[in-house]
Design a protein that fits this description.
By secondary structure, this protein is of the alpha+beta class. It is built from 8 helices and 18 strands. It has 2 domains: 189 residues, Trna Endonuclease, Chain: A, domain 1 (3-Layer(aba) Sandwich); 143 residues, ph1033 like fold (Roll).
């Protein structure tokens, strides 16, 4: 039987049933969701409204979650259950094939600002490298009939990532209320793995890498002596050791921002063996007067030690002048390939290295 929501107002000891009303228009529900998609119960960023598909149809709302998965939201309006479900499935087949660049292009046309900055405003972090890895289809209605319930439940039984949500609208003493009910609760939702599309990772230009440089290390040391380093565990040492000679690295200090760009001039070596150029002469880094802490005498394995990568700097700034902007890529890896076009464009402009990619 179809889902039903009832509400009562308690005056004294006597509950009084509130009668649901029809929304003035279902377009009003569209606007509610466009302005505040959290009405659906999860943090979402709307990246498109009335999105025109290549087939001339208009998708009501397209949103994205913190994991980079897309959510197709289609209002039932006055269509029959068969029509609305067919429509949302059609939109799902189109949305599942959207590339990372397609998603960002749709978002920036709708948002009138960078997708990366908008994403960070909502979720507090830069977008993941891979977008549209999974897909969720949702039929939105102001009422749900038995036929819609049967169709959606049947499709979910075959692993289709579809659900239905309906909103009950109630007026009482000049106050308006909106109640939400899902056809299937979150812990019953069908895994969406079958809806995974091909990789939506940003293309890599084969040159640029991100390096995180923090902890007890000193940026003044690295900047003046020409190196970056990381270590103290597999997660940190394995990635810094993967930096190839000739790589262009963009150095980020956590909680501060980007402080420099340079070119890797040699392989990673243990701190105790690392050499740097001082006045044209190679000397042991460990013998130099250093502000930061790098030695790890208790390191039991290569993974536990500190690894140093020599760098010829192109442009650096003091930590106090670190460059930060909403949407710039940052994560906990000591080093990783830098693919995000928004970040690369902003960094190239800021550090004046345009044309070198």
């Amino acid at each position: 039987m179809p889902v039903e929501t009832r509400m009562w107002r308690i005056d004294g000891e006597s509950p009084r049933a509130l009668t649901p009303s029809a929304l003035p228009t279902e377009n009003e529900l569209h606007q509610f969701l466009r302005q505040d998609p959290s009405l659906l119960g999860a943090a979402l960023l709307v990246i498109g409204s009335e999105v025109i598909t290549p087939y001339g149809t208009r998708l009501d709302l397209l949103a994205i979650d913190a994991d980079g998965s897309l959510h197709v939201l289609e209002l039932k309006r006055d269509r029959t259950p068969r029509e609305v479900v067919a429509q949302v499935l059609d939109y799902g087949s189109w949305a599942s094939a959207l590339s990372r660049d397609d998603v960002i292009d749709i978002a920036e046309r709708y948002l009138d600002r960078s997708f990366e900055a908008s994403f960070e405003d909502v979720f507090g972090a830069a977008p993941p490298d891979e977008l549209n890895r999974e897909l969720q289809l949702t039929v939105v209605a102001s009422a749900l009939d038995a036929s819609s319930e049967r169709i959606v439940t049947y499709l979910r039984g075959f692993g289709v990532p579809i659900n239905a949500v309906f909103f009950t609208y109630i007026e009482d003493d000049c106050r308006r209320y909106l109640a939400r009910s899902w056809l299937t609760t979150s812990d019953e939702r069908t895994p969406t793995s079958i809806a995974k599309s091909t990789s939506k990772r940003a293309p890599w230009n084969g040159l640029d890498w991100y390096v995180s440089f923090g902890g007890d290390r000193s940026w003044d040391d690295a900047r003046s002596l020409g190196f970056v380093s990381a270590g103290g565990g597999k997660f940190y040492s394995r990635t810094i050791r993967a930096l190839p000679e000739g790589a262009r690295i963009w150095v980020y200090i956590p909680q501060s921002g980007y402080v420099g760009v340079g070119t890797v001039t040699g392989p990673a070596v243990r701190f105790d063996s690392a050499q740097v150029l001082v006045d044209g002469t190679r000397v042991l880094l460990a013998k130099e007067p250093l502000t930061g802490s790098y030695s790890r005498p208790d390191a039991a394995t290569d993974d536990d030690d500190e690894w140093v990568v020599p760098v010829q700097w192109i442009h650096t700034v003091p930590q106090a002048e670190a460059y930060q902007e909403k949407g710039l890529f940052a994560n906990q890896n000591s080093a990783c390939k830098l693919r995000q076009e928004f970040t690369l464009e902003r960094l190239s402009q800021h550090f004046d290295v345009q044309g070198e990619s």
